[in-house]
Amino acid sequence: MLWIRDTFDGHYSYYMCRGMNFDIETAVLGLIERTMGQLGLTRDQISVLGVSKGGSAALYFGLKYGFRNIVTVVPQFLVGSYVRDRAETGRYMLGDDMPQSHVDLLDGAIPELLKAYGGQGHNVYLFTSEADEQYETEISPHLQLFWACENFNLIRTNSQLVRQHGEVSGYNLPLMLGVLSALSDGAQPRLGFVENGDAQVNSVERQRYLADLRSGEALTAVLNKQDIRGNNLILSGHAFLPGESPHGEFPTTKSLVVEGGGRHWEWPLATVEAKHTYSLYFDRYARDYADGGFEPEAKTGIPMTGIPGGAYDLSVRVTSPAEGIDRRTKLVARRPFDIRRPFGGLEISLVGDEERVRLLRRPVIGHFSQETAFSLEKSWLKERTLHVERVFFVHGIEAAAHGHASYYLVLRGAQATYSFRLGMSRKPAVVRPHVRRGDFGSYEFAYFATSGYKGIALTNAVPGEYEVFISMSTGGSLFSAAAGGVTLS
Question: What is the mean pLDDT of the chain?
Fold first, then answer.
C-alpha cells in the first residue's frame, strides 16, 4: 500500500498543481509508477482510494492515467470553485489573483475526463450521502457522467450516524475495506446503486427507550483534552445525562470533583457545545447531546490551590434540578495519557485511561537511590541563565525510548523552591560508560539537558543560595540526584 500525503510547501494541492504549474501531479505520478515497477504491478491491478480532496485525486489520477479500480469517497468534482472559496489553498493552486480562467480549468479537470470516456474501462465505487452538505453541488449534478462506465457503483448512505461530509468515510469503512480486499484479489464487485444505513426509526419506541435511559442511573463523563499549567488543570470533554426526558429539554449544571484521603473538593464547570455525540455515544437510537461538553469556567484552568500531596480520583457531577436529578460518576479518558509537570516544590501528574483519571501531587525532590547512575559534567550559569546536561538513569529501569521519563531541574533555597522541565536526547556513546557491568538494559535516552542546550532563565527567582537537584520521574517513582549549588544575586 502506498499512502501519499497531500502536503506541498505546507499547503494542500489536490495532488495537482501550484500556481497552475502541474509539477506536483507529475511528481505524484512518478512516485506511483516507481512503486508499481518495484512491485511488478500493471495499471489494471492498481486501486486508487481517497476521501474528499483525496477522493477527487483518486478520480482524477484513475481516469487520466488508466488505473483500473477507483474507490472515491465524497469527492469534489468542481475543484477550482471549491478551492477558490478557501483562499489559502486557492491562491496556492490557482495563483495569487485566482483568475476565473484558472478556476474553470480546474473545474473541468474531472468532468471533462468523464465526458470524454464516461469512466469506460474502470471499476468505480463512489461513496456519498445526501446528508453531505456538498452533495447537491458536487455529487448529484455529475452522476450522469458515469454513463459509459460498465461497473459504476454508487453507495449512498442514509443513516442517523451520518449527518455531514466528514462522517461518510468512517461509517462506510468496513464496506470500503471489503471492496478493496476483493479488488486486490482480482474480483470486481458489482454493487450497482446501493442505499445503506437504516433511517427508518419508530418514534414511539425511540422515545420510550431514551426516557428509560434517562430515568436510570446513567451518567457519561469522558475527558477529551487535558493539560497542566502551573498549578491549574485544563480539562475539557463530554459530560451529560444519557437518554431524553419525555417532557422536553432542561438545563443542567456540571462540576468537577477531586477526592482522596477522606477529603474532596468541587469546582463548577462551564457547559459548552459538543459535536458528533450522536455517533460517539450511539445507544440503539441516535441522540444529539449538543450541550454535552464541558470545560473550566476560566481559560486559565481549575486551580488546585490548597490540595495537599497525595493521590486523588477525579469525577464529574451533573444535576438537572427540574428533573430532580443529581448524579456523579468517575471521569474516564477517551485515550490513555500521562502528563507530569513541575511546580515549585511539587510534581503534579495527571494520569488517565478508560478506567479512571487520577491527580498525583508529591514533592519534586524524590528518592536518592544507590542504583542511580548520575553525571553532571556540563553546566554553566551566565547572569541568571542556568544550563545543565549529562546522564541520569536508574539501573533496572530502562531508558530505551524518548519519553521514558520526565526530567526536572530543581533549585531549593531557604525562601523558595523552583523547578523546571528538562529535555532529553539519545546519546548512547555518552551513556554507555555509566552502565554497570552485567546490566544488559537499554539506557541510551538517559541524557538530560535544558531545552536547546540554551539554559533556563531564572529571572523571577529570589536572590540567595540554592541547592541544585536533578529529578527523574518514571512510572510510579521519582528519583533525584544532588547537583551542587548556585548563588543568585
Answer: 95
Percent of the chain with pLDDT over 70: 100
Spans of the chain, pLDDT less than 70: none
Q: How far apart are CA 42 and CA 35, in angstroms?
A: 11
Burial class (CB in 10 A: 0-12, 13-18, 19+), 324: exposed
* Distance in angstroms (rounded) separating the CA atoms of residues 336 and 460: 35
Query: Bridge-partner residues for 227, per DSSP?
Result: 234
* Span 425-471, pLDDT tens digits: 999 999 999 999 999 999 999 999 999 999 999 999 999 999 999 99
**DSSP E strands, 241-356:** 253-260, 263-272, 293-296, 302-303, 310-320, 325-330, 332-333, 337-343, 346-352
- In the block, cell 426509526 appears at 201
Answer yes or no: are the C-beta atoms of 101 and 77 closer than 8 Å.
no
| 3-class secondary structure, 281 | coil
What gap in Å lies between CA 276 and CA 266, rounded to an integer? 28
Residue 33 corresponds to which cell in the numbers above? Answer: 509508477
Q: How far apart are the first and last CA of the chain?
A: 61
Report the distance separating Cα 448 and Cα 471, nearest Å. Answer: 10
DSSP for 450-480? SGGG--EE-TTSPSEEEEEEEEEEETTEEEE
**CB of 238 within 8 A of CB of 311?**
no
